[in-house]
Design brief:
By secondary structure, the chain is mainly alpha-helical. It folds into two domains: 203 residues, Rossmann fold, CATH 3.40.50.620; 88 residues, Tyrosyl-Transfer RNA Synthetase, CATH 1.10.240. Strand 1, helix 1 and strand 2 form a beta-alpha-beta unit. It is elongated. The chain starts with a strand and ends with a helix. The relative contact order is 0.15. Bound molecules: adenosine monophosphate. Adenosine monophosphate binds next to helix 1.
Length: 326
């Protein structure tokens, strides 16, 4: 069985966009692949974080993914920072990476321009990401387009290491998840719904109350055409609501168009609000049962044990090949 690895950066609250665009796909992929899922808390540290908030978010993220259907029996779930072998491997990989390569990363170039006091971690974190991927010989890494270059860097580093020291790593491949369903902001339906959006009126957080969700949907931007039809150019708001409703029911967009033929936007919005609140309510029920449970700690303990064992072995092999072992 091929191995797939996903890292989750614990920033912002997970949105309906994350759920429909990424988490639902992960839930369906967990049956096909040996799945590894971790909270990339060390990656979050490249920029300044509130430590109390970060600590809380790490746990919230994992609990929410499980509440959304990630099965702890089918996934190895862990917190990145609990595996000390990964940063150790990262240093060994840094010595196999050129400064030119690291500084050519688009994310580094863009983010270092935004803030003159950027951390060294901003330059080196793609190499830490290479360690995240290579220690467990992941075959596939699902990423957005912005992270594709980093998976390619991991592949290049692995290839160079293999050539220099003999076969050590599986060469990972990025899987672009851009082809998945994209959910747009409810207020500005030409913009992607994002968990880091400052003005949350168009963003449905999975932590929103059901009342707030209904309000946001009822007040979402539409148009003056008055027909419920999927037309992303002329009716982006209605098209977005159709995508949301179709993704959460077994109905196709065509079926929904037929069902709401001749009906008003108000009635359609009420229906979408009902579909979304029913789904989110189930997720929130499950979340509240997990968040403070012993079971969550057991899942994380089991995950980190497996992850550390693999990373420990891989780091030892690397050190033996590089000559830094007694
Ligand atoms: P982010 O929230 O940007 O860190 O993205 C985490 C994952 O969720 C990525 O796989 C994104 O492609 C996916 N995602 C985030 N926002 C949306 C959205 N509005 N529609 C679809 N997928 C999304």
């Amino acid at each position: 069985m091929k191995r797939i690895l996903t890292g989750l950066k614990p920033t912002g609250d997970l949105t309906l966009g994350n759920y429909i665009g990424a988490i639902k796909q992960m839930v369906s992929m967990q049956n096909k692949y040996d799945s590894y899922l971790f909270v990339a808390d060390l990656h979050a540290l490249t920029v300044k974080q509130d430590s109390e908030e970060l600590k809380m978010r790490i746990r919230k993220f994992i609990a929410m993914y499980i509440a959304c259907g990630i099965d702890p029996e089918k996934n190895t779930i862990y917190i990145q920072s609990e595996n000390e072998y990964i940063p150790a491997m990262s240093y060994l990989l840094e010595c196999t990476t050129t400064y030119g390569e690291a500084s050519r990363m688009i994310q580094f170039k863009e983010k270092s321009k935004e803030n003159a006091n950027f951390s060294v971690g901003l330059l080196t974190y793609p190499i830490l990401m290479a360690a995240d991927i290579l220690y467990c010989d992941a075959d596939y890494v699902p990423v957005g387009i912005d992270q594709k270059q980093h998976v390619e860097l991991a592949r290049n580093i692995a290839e160079r290491f293999n050539n220099r020291y003999g076969k050590t790593f599986t060469l990972p491949e990025p899987i672009l998840n851009e082809t998945g369903t994209k959910i747009y902001d409810l207020k500005v339906p030409t913009k992607k719904m994002s968990k880091t959006e400052e003005n949350p009126v168009g963003v449905i957080s999975l932590f929103d109350t059901l009342e707030d969700i209904t309000k946001k949907i009822m007040r979402s931007t539409t148009d003056s055409i008055g027909i419920i039809k999927y037309d992303i150019e002329n009716q982006p708001g209605i098209s977005n609501l159709l995508t949301i409703a179709s993704s959460l029911t077994n109905k196709s967009i065509k079926d929904l168009e037929r069902e709401f033929e001749g009906k008003g936007y108000g009635e359609f919005k009420k229906y979408v609000a009902l579909v979304v609140t029913e789904e989110v309510s189930k997720i929130q029920d499950k979340y509240s049962k997990i968040i403070n449970s012993k079971e969550l700690d057991e899942i994380l303990d089991k995950g980190i044990e497996k992850s550390r064992k693999l990373a420990k072995e891989k780091e030892k092999i690397m050190k033996e090949k590089m000559g830094t072992i007694r």
